[in-house]
Design brief:
The protein is built from four helices and nine strands. By secondary structure, the chain is an alpha+beta fold. A hairpin with a 6-residue loop joins strand 2 and strand 3. Belongs to the PPase family.
């Protein structure tokens, strides 16, 4: 019997790539690194961060996307309230942080909660206070450095670049998980080995 998996069974959003569904794994301020267990669809504690830093925004992934690191596309969602893990957030895409993690590209989409009036007026990454981007950059560089891993935040780019990255990850998802299948989306993902 097939089981529900958030990565495959939650819609990515009717207005993608401008607005996407973000599935939150880690709330802002957390030192716990939670991530989706791809096989069961449940959330697991990957590790507790070995540092004084904590997540600068709600962190998760965009369903029905796939990247070269064999994971769904990551997303940071800025919101004025703490968003609980496994919550679905309608996220308005405003930019992307391009990172190299262990010699692999590891893009992080940056978005604001579309239904949060205190942040949804931001339309592009350039609208954010400069310290917000610096905090994001320092978080990823610092926590990885304390784990003796090298991460380089290459650059921040605006929403149009982010849209292209999202579209590419949707295409790769479709090619990887939906090719050679004329079945309905529900049955396409039922037998996927992750």
């Amino acid at each position: 019997m097939a089981h529900f998996n958030p990565w495959h069974d939650v819609a990515l959003g009717d207005n993608a790539p401008q607005t996407v569904t973000g599935i939150i794994e880690i709330p802002k301020g957390s030192k716990g690194k939670y991530e989706l267990d791809k096989e069961s669809g449940l959330l697991k504690l990957d590790r507790v961060l070995f540092s004084a830093v904590h997540y600068p925004a709600a962190y998760g992934f965009i369903p029905q996307t796939y990247c070269d690191d064999n994971d769904p596309l990551d997303i940071l969602v800025i919101c004025s309230v703490d968003v609980v893990p496994m919550c679905l957030v309608e996220a308005k895409v405003i930019g992307v942080m391009q990172m190299i993690d262990g010699n692999e590209e590891d893009d992080k989409i940056i978005a604001v909660a579309a239904n949060d009036i205190s942040v949804n007026h931001y339309n592009d990454i350039a609208d954010l206070p400069p310290h917000t981007l610096l905090e994001m950059q320092r978080f990823f560089e610092d926590y990885k450095a304390l784990e003796h891993k090298q991460v380089v935040v290459e650059r921040f780019m605006g929403r149009e670049d982010a849209y292209g990255i999202i579209e590419k990850s949707i295409k790769l998802y479709d090619e990887t998980f939906r090719q050679n299948s004329s079945a309905s989306p529900e049955t396409q993902t039922a037998g996927i080995e992750l």
